[in-house]
Amino acid sequence: MFQGPIIFGLTVNEILLAVFLTLALIFTYKTLVERDLVKAVVYSGGEAVSYALAFVVMYAPDLVLAYVAVGLGIYSALFLFVITRTERYEKEVVEA
Amino acid sequence: MSSEEALAIIVSLAAAALLAVVAVGQGLVPVASTDLTPLARFYLLNVYNGSSQLWGASPEVITSILWDYRGLDTVYETAVFFLAIIATLTLFRDAKLLPETAGSGRGMTVIVKTVTRITFVTIPIIAASIALHGHLTPGGGFQGGAAFGVAPLLLITAFSLRLAAERGWSKGKLLTVRTAGLLAIGLIAVSTPYIIAALGGKAGIGYVMQNQPKAWAEVGWPYAIAYAGMRVLFSGTLLFLNLAELFAVSAGLALVFTVIAMPTEVLEKGGGVKK
What we know:
The structure holds two protein chains of two kinds. By secondary structure, chain A is mainly alpha-helical. Chain A is 70% helix and 4% strand. Chain A has one domain (9-85). Chain A is built from three helices and two strands. In chain A, α2 runs antiparallel to α3 (61-84). Chain A is elongated and about 55 Å long. By secondary structure, chain B is an all-alpha fold. Chain B has a two-stranded antiparallel ribbon with strand order 1-2. Chain A binds chain B through residues 1, 9-11, 13-14, 17, 33, 58, 61-62, 64-66, 69-70, 73-74, 77-78, 81, 85, and chain B through 5, 28, 30-32, 34, 62-63, 130, 138-140, 142-143, 146-147, 149-150, 153, 157, 253, 257, 260-261, 264.
């Protein structure tokens, strides 16, 4: 199996996987704290792309094809439809 | 940033550092083992091995597992998806898709519309190639159908639901395609003995979701046809199941988007939803 150069004891695939999963973690955090729900949907799309790239690195092209269409296209669109029926901005929770 | 968030970040970083220390102490375990598991070895040796009793007649191992070796699982998955869509429709059972009640029909700007005109043609082509080559290359019916589902979504958002309604879309038509796809999957699942009898062979026993003949069930689908001096591989049931799944999934997604994109007052009237 082709491995490529070894950098700091890690293969290129392992480094790429770490980069994409860290990116996904950052996007997840931004999705959670974002008050503008439309922006949150965009961040969650970025998370989906990061996971799709991680799947590419892990040699799972079948998953990528379904994941990009569902995670980025259909899931985001469903949430945008839902947001049009409610409020776009999340309010601060007032603690009683 | 509130104190809870800062605390959560510190705890996560500490846990990550601890995990890293443990991993380095163990010699930094690789992401996945490069050795093949016995199960992977079995599939790689048998799936496209014509001399094996357990072959799937397809070079695509994933599709073979999904529709042949673990075919029943995929049938149930399709049935679950079908039930989810039926449940969505039940919520809004009396909401009719008519041009008069399908919103303003204004759509988005001319830039978005022009781009959508191009992509609306290319997306179904990509989807069809994903599904029809599902038995040869990565992809398959569900992946193709999910990609296809983006095309009606684009049409509804960029051009408005009113245009779709004027062009003759209706819930009934989409549901018919959806049900036909599921019905085709069901018929293929139990078809093997009948196919052989229809081709003039001796009907024997077969099992549900059978693709190729086995020692204990000696009937199966043909896996290739000769065309213009070439042998065209279609892998028995796999191509037809992928095609049926493409229709089922894409029509199902289009149906859900059509219903969701209807104006709120139509949905409220149609489903008896109280404010």
